[in-house]
Fold this sequence. Notes:
Keywords: ATP-binding, Coenzyme A biosynthesis, Cytoplasm, Kinase, Nucleotide-binding, Transferase. The protein is an alpha/beta fold and 200 residues long. The protein has helices at residues 13-22, 30-36, 43-52, 65-74, 76-103, 135-146, 150-158, 163-166, 180-193; strands at residues 2-6, 27-29, 109-112, 127-132, 172-175.
Amino acid sequence: MIIGLTGGIASGKSLLAEYMQAWDLPIIDADAIAREVVEPGRPAYEEIKDFFGNEVFHEDGTLDRKALGSIIFADKEKRNRLNKITHPAIHKEMMNKKEALLNEGNRALIFDIPLLVENGRMNIVDRVLLAYVSEDVQLKRLMERDRSSKEEALERIRSQMPLKEKKDYADAVVDNNGSRVESKNQLLHILTKWGVEMDE
């Protein structure tokens, strides 16, 4: 079974991934792969350089994620362009990792994909699991986590699909508004119901 773990910024998705990793469920992290595919020498790296220019790179040639982020969060067309460059490369890498894990005998694995719903990728998973928090909790946690202003945090939240809309696409929802223990218990209940074998 392939479970698509998704959420939004500061929704507690990483917490759920931590628990699943602790239970020995293999996780394929789209964000980690996104960092790999833009390393120097990779095709996506060259395409980003061609389109965005040198101002989104550090002096040592590595990608300046903060500079690139500030451009794409404020400009939808440029955000779409970056997605067109990186998404095919990320998808290919994820599928390679999936095949390797299944060939090793894993019966369940997790695709950790923040933009699973936005990018219409539900077809690559068997179940969609959503990490959910209310808007006010999301804003508060993001401001605390990134030490950002309310305006900066809101801009980042609004660049994503609202979590309450994502609920419509989820097979199950973990409500992360409460304590870590409450989140863990909800997650355990869902995975048990889905018949996922875990090492607790």
